[in-house]
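Propose amino acids for all 370 sites.
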């Protein structure tokens, strides 16, 4: 099975998840939980509390959030092509850093051997093209830069904006933990599930790779990498990790557009601080009971558990959370259907009014992953 990731597979393999929770409960501390980054029009960030992560010298969590919510225009590096004007435009339900209904378009086609090929998207009435990527930006600073997907690009998909609350804890999970979960899945699922981990480059540590865990395709393994990509792909703001725009048509600023401030921090550093400082979505009592039951069921098949998680000691800065944090939690924000061996589970929990909407979900599967 080559789907989203081992982390997402936890969603399908509720039994393993439950067992992990049960075992981890004995040794791991709960991650701080709460929707505590309200989006405020006045004094943004002033009522927010972080999970306690240390701030760089001179920085504050409120400042990180202000920059995350800042609405950009052409003078601050927006475009030439973009999808949104602020991180919080898409990541804001119910608070800054959450998910939203926002979807973005990916397109391409298959070659003769069935391999996916990125599109050439003509702009400026065909005088230029955007190549080398599948993301299509819906907006442009000037009409000449507007992307239109050619009819030849027959593979199209929408990807919804993901939740980032608590992602620092996901970043802190050691590769070996994810690999171990994948390795024992066939045993506890009678061969039905086997998570496939992919190694992806760490943009801020050239030459290094790590198990991917962020994005719908697990395309990134560190928050800073994802965020450097997002600043360019979603907002058209070039930065030290992604220093070149998709097109120069309509461009008036010089690269990189994101430069360090008086604290020595670029916007992407503030974004990473903000996301790493968010708390995980709170647990839901119904779902916790659901997981507990699944856990005891899976425990009978004695599935191993990731137990403690820690940062790997690589040269890039991973979230510096201590060992023994929960890799998984149960959110009350959104509930998705839990499949058991590929089928929606219909008999659990018995108190449910609807087993589709009242079901289990680990943190990595919350919100719009349905
Ligand atoms: C136009 C909407 C939009 C904007 C603006 C936007 N994002 Fe996203 N974000 C998305 C979508 C859609 C995804 C899923 C993308 C994918 O996997 O292909 C995503 C995914 C992410 C993820 C991965 C979350 C996970 O757990 O897998 C992070 C981190 C993230 N965004 C951070 C940011 C930051 C920081 C900014 C501002 C620089 C930003 N995003 C701006 C829509 C947006």
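Proposal:
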């Amino acid at each position: 099975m080559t789907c989203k990731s081992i982390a997402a597979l936890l969603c399908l393999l509720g039994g393993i998840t439950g067992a992990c929770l049960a075992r981890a409960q004995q040794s791991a501390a709960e991650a701080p939980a709460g929707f505590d980054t309200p989006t405020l029009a006045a004094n943004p960030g002033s009522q927010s509390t972080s999970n306690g992560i240390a701030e760089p010298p001179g920085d504050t969590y409120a400042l990180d959030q202000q920059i995350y919510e800042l609405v950009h225009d052409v003078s601050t590096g927006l475009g030439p092509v973009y999808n949104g004007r602020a991180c919080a435009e898409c990541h804001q339900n119910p608070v800054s850093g959450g998910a939203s209904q926002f979807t973005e378009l990916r397109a391409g086609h298959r070659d003769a051997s069935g391999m996916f090929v990125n599109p050439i998207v003509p702009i400026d009435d065909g005088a230029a093209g955007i190549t080398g990527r599948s993301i299509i930006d819906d907006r442009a600073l000037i009409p000449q830069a507007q992307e239109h997907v050619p009819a030849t690009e027959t593979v199209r998909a929408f990807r919804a904006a993901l939740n980032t609350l608590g992602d620092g804890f996901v970043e802190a999970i050691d590769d070996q933990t994810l690999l171990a979960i994948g390795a024992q899945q066939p045993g506890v699922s009678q061969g039905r599930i086997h998570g496939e981990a992919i190694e992806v480059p760490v943009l801020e540590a050239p030459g290094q790779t790590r198990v991917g865990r962020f994005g719908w395709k697990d395309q990134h393994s560190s928050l800073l990498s994802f965020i450097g990509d997002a600043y360019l792909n979603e907002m058209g703001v070039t930065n030290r990790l992604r220093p070149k725009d998709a097109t120069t048509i309509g461009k008036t600023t010089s690269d990189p557009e994101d430069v360090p401030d008086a604290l020595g921090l670029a916007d992407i550093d503030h974004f990473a601080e903000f996301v790493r400082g968010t708390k995980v979505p709170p647990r839901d009592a119904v779902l916790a009971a659901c997981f507990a039951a699944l856990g005891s069921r899976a425990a009978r098949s004695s599935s191993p558990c990731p137990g403690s998680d820690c940062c790997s000691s690589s040269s890039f800065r991973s979230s510096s959370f201590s060992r023994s944090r929960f890799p998984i939690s149960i959110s009350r924000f959104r509930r998705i259907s839990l499949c058991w061996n590929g089928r929606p589970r219909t008999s659990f929990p018995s108190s449910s009014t609807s087993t589709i909407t009242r079901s289990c979900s680990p943190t990595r599967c919350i919100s719009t992953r349905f």
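Residues 1-25, 298-370 have pLDDT under 50 and may be disordered. Residues 220 and 240 are 16 Å apart (CA to CA).
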